[in-house]
């Protein structure tokens, strides 16, 4: 397939971390929504997907020192939210299995917790590059928030005791990562960042917005400079079923993460099901507006064709028995059906 860095797809970024570290809140701040408050018990129980367009990235990043809007070459981010509760290990595994990068959210007040360690193991095993969000910096005693400033510039203007508490806490996190055999440093430490072994940490407050621009700018820059080859859009279909969901009025639908290639209305699809491979036809493709969450029942819009990377709701007959976490195929020639069914059997 033809590859070109002029035609980058959105990087897929998975947000992982222990329960209540602020993963959903961070996405709410990016989207300017309030999904987290609507969750039962404040606990995420499904995988989510949000498309963050380039304009929204640029707007967030303007505050970041040394940031130039023209440098953002990706068309956006596709951000996958996952649950941190211990009982959803399968969803963390599924979400992290198809992402290009991850944001590992750590509560600065708590350090590395059980599902943080579990998430680190997933990322290391799959060689997924990740950035640590050192979240809840607003909880540093006497911290004054300023979401419109570069977080490092802003931290430099805090009272001395705030700076000392920050240093003490992040150094504890550095030690905890070292115990896992990993080197971490703040993302503005140019000397350490020159060493590819170091994993960057960005101080954030998902609640107040501080540092979110720095985090997004860092990911955009890293994605383009180090991984543009991987992000070159290709036509060959790469799609995975993330969730199987009954939606009132729509029947049982599947939420699909389309990494590369296109899905079109009326495409014949083949996917794995409880009783063996399912062959069906796409009756509709739906997506929420940009900056809206795929897992929230909102006003979806219908599309005739969708190009990766996107999170998309696929409507088709017979999805009640579909299995999540496995690939979705499109039949291009009639004689492919047997082959694709066999692929599903093997999965
Ligand atoms: P799960 O999806 O259930 O694993 O949790 P989560 O990581 O998505 O965390 P969530 O966004 O649900 O936030 C948990 C709690 O922490 C909520 O009460 C948030 O308001 C709060 N919170 C999140 N980020 C911050 C932050 O930066 N500062 C402060 N003070 N509170 C935060
Ligand atoms: Mg959540
Ligand atoms: Na939560």
UniProtKB/TrEMBL annotation:
<comment type="similarity">
    <text>Belongs to the TRAFAC class translation factor GTPase superfamily. Classic translation factor GTPase family. IF-2 subfamily.</text>
</comment>
<feature type="domain" description="Tr-type G">
    <location>
        <begin position="8"/>
        <end position="227"/>
    </location>
</feature>
<comment type="subunit">
    <text>Interacts through its C-terminal domain (CTD) with the CTD of eIF1A (EIF1AX) or with the CTD of EIF5 (mutually exclusive) through a common binding site. Interacts with eIF1A (EIF1AX) from the location of the start codon by the 43S complex until the formation of the 80S complex. Interacts with ANXA5 in a calcium and phospholipid-dependent manner.</text>
</comment>
<comment type="function">
    <text>Plays a role in translation initiation. Ribosome-dependent GTPase that promotes the joining of the 60S ribosomal subunit to the pre-initiation complex to form the 80S initiation complex with the initiator methionine-tRNA in the P-site base paired to the start codon. Together with eIF1A (EIF1AX), actively orients the initiator methionine-tRNA in a conformation that allows 60S ribosomal subunit joining to form the 80S initiation complex. Is released after formation of the 80S initiation complex.</text>
</comment>
<protein>
    <recommendedName>
        <fullName>Eukaryotic translation initiation factor 5B</fullName>
    </recommendedName>
</protein>
């Amino acid at each position: 397939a033809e590859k070109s860095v002029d035609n980058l797809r959105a990087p897929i970024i998975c947000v992982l971390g222990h329960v209540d570290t602020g993963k959903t809140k961070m996405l709410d701040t990016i989207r300017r929504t309030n999904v987290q408050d609507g969750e039962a018990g404040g606990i995420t129980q499904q995988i989510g997907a949000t498309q963050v367009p380039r304009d929204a990235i640029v707007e967030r990043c303007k505050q970041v020192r040394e940031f130039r809007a023209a440098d953002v070459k990706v068309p956006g981010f596709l951000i996958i939210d996952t649950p941190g509760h211990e009982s959803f290990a399968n969803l963390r595994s599924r979400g992290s299995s198809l992402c290009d990068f991850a944001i590992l959210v750590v509560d600065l007040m708590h350090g590395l917790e059980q599902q943080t360690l579990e998430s680190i193991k997933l990322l290391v095993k799959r060689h997924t590059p990740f950035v640590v969000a050192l979240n809840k910096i607003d909880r540093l005693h006497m911290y004054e928030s300023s979401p419109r400033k570069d977080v490092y510039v802003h931290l430099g203007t805090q009272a001395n005791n705030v700076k000392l508490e920050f240093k003490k806490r992040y150094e504890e996190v550095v030690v905890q990562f070292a115990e896992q055999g990993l080197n971490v440093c703040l993302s503005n430490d140019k000397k350490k960042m020159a060493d590819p072994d170091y994993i960057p940490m960005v101080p954030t407050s998902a609640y107040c917005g501080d540092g979110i621009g720095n985090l997004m700018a860092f990911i955009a820059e890293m994605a383009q400079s180090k991984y543009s080859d991987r992000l070159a859009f290709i036509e060959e279909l790469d799609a995975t079923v993330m969730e199987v969901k009954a939606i009132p009025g729509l029947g049982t639908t599947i939420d699909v993460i389309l990494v590369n290639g296109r899905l079109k209305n009326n495409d014949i699809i083949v996917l794995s099901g409880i009783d063996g491979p399912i062959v069906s036809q796409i009756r509709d493709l739906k997506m929420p507006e940009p900056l809206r969450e795929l897992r929230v029942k909102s006003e979806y819009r219908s599309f005739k064709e969708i190009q990766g990377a996107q999170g998309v709701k696929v409507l088709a007959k017979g999805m009640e028995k579909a299995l999540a976490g496995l690939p979705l195929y499109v039949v291009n020639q009639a004689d492919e059906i047997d082959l694709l069914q066999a692929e599903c059997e093997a999965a």
